[in-house]
Amino acid sequence: MNYEPSSMNKTNKHILLTGGTGLIGHKLTQQLLDTGYQVSHLSRSPGNDPRIKTFKWDVGKGQIDENCIDGVDVIIHLAGAGVADKMWTARRKREIVDSRIKSIELIYELLRNKMHKVNAVISASATGYYGDRCAELLTETSAPGNDFLAKCCIVWEDAVEIGKKLDLRIVILRTGVVLDKEGALAKMGTPIKLGIGSPLGNGKQCVPWIHCQDVTDLYQYALENEKISGVYNMAAPNPVTNKQLTQAIAKQLNKSLWLPPVPSFILKLLLGEMGNIVLASTKVSVKKIENAGFQFKYPDIEPALKEIYG
Questions:
Q1: Is this model's pTM higher than 0.85 or not?
Q2: Which candidate among 113, 122, 174, 190 keeps its CA 20 to 30 Å from the CA of 229?
Q3: What's the pLDDT score for residue 265?
């Protein structure tokens, strides 16, 4: 059967989220609240949900409200500048990396210097760790890539792993392309809705997609199963190519694809190095998390998209 969040009372469990207002963070927050957890956020700005206490921090200035860890059992670390939000200038690359590393360093420094009961850190990472690997099936022990995203993930994960020295259970979830009405799917769906959609590059690149509900369920599964530790791939069991994903989206939107694929050189001219996000091929195995007992609600692309588009 598919994983269902436990219905046991969670009112004594306090979770601190970084990046709690992002796409995944917002949905995960609501899911945890609905199943009885107490949830707090670390954020640059105050929140407006009375159920969530928001503690302020400024990663760039090295500032954090030391009260944020009071009573906290587990920290879920999702904070990080959006990889595809802006062009990859040298400054933006530094911001992408620093937002991930300096944020967890700030938290660990606080944990070292103040009494607390935090016992675990569950952190995001990305399947970008592997780089462009064609159709090679990648497990958690596969070597990393050597492009910018891969190098970012390496130092990101290394920074999180330092938590082991603080006797924390560390879980790192290498997330693929999260499908929801917002985010990446909205960007992919817009040209298709306008009748100008087409595969990107040769369309053969593997896309490690995952339904947003499976993402939030997997975070909660890692939270509730204390035997889980280490690195896990977070993608649907049945990957698709860029062409197959584009066709599946078009089918759900009742649109036809008539334009030829967008040549790789055009994407590189428009996006520069950031074009690797859509041109890289990454096929990951999720056997490790499945063997740990997690079962996906949406293993196949068509039912996943049907649920999203409703």
A1: yes
A2: 113
A3: 85
